Amino acid sequence: MTPSSCKMPAMAAADRLIVALDVSARDSALALVSALRPKVQRFKVGMELFTASGPQLVREILEGGSQVFLDLKYHDIPHTVARAAVAAARLGAGMMTLHLSGGALMARRASDELEAHCQLYRIPKPKLLGVTVLTSLAPSDLEDLGISRSLPEQVLAMASMARSAGLDGVVCSPQEIKPIRDACGRDFLIVTPGVRPPGSEPDDQSRTLTPRAAIEAGADFIVVGRPVVKARDPLEAAEAILLQMDAA
Ligand code: C5P
To answer: What would the pLDDT profile of 102-126 be if each residue is shown by its tens digit?
Structure first.
């Protein structure tokens, strides 16, 4: 166990697992939610499902008692992103994302407007998370994008910017948890996709860790998509992941 994991507050594995509903049909998404609900409380609705099935589906998942992480990775001018963030709060999202590559002003404005709106209307404020560097990107991709910092430096710079802009946390690869935790502190949320159970395919993720290693490194939440969604028995797959998380 690492020193940073020793400082983790006691939170059950089931609270920390977010299953990415990466399907396009409403019926498949709701079938997954009802199959997984005995063990999984948080579901991520990303751009595929949201584009296909929209806010009504989010409401249906919420009405069933689960929490929704609305992962639409906003990236636009500050005004547009801030208004979208407020709309996500009104919809009832518990967590949401924006791309930190949209800049500090965009991140700050979204954070400020979200806070002000939720206070004014007394609605729960979703956790606003910044995407540092997509977990599918490798160092050579950064070079192609004209970014001269190394990948770890870029991730850390983005995370520090998120913290200064008032965001609740970041989404990053599990391999980047420790330096972010050291730089941004214990109360800064770290959510990690790119998690793969031992022996499973990395798919298009290039910087992966196992569920156990991600929790041991200090992740607050892990996001798992295909290893659960594409499994023959999604509940069994989720249970196996929860067991590995518990072992941490
Ligand atoms: O199927 P898999 O477990 O790779 O799914 C990972 C999920 O996490 C996807 O929904 C993807 O959009 C999301 N994600 C990611 N990398 C980020 C942010 C989000 O893979 N940096």
So the answer is: 999 999 999 999 999 999 999 999 9
The answer, yes or no, to whether any atom of ligand 1 lies below 6 A from the CB of 169, is: no
User: Please, what are the domains in the chain?
Assistant: 13-247 (3.20.20.70)
pTM of the model: 0.92
Q: Which among 7, 44, 73, 125 is annotated as catalytic? A: 73
Q: How far is the CA of 99 from the centre of ligand 1 (A)?
A: 13
Does residue 176 have its Cβ closer than 6 Å to ligand 1? Answer: no
Query: Is-catalytic flag, 73?
Result: yes
Average pLDDT, the chain: 92
Side-chain-side CA neighbours of residue 223 (13 Å): 24
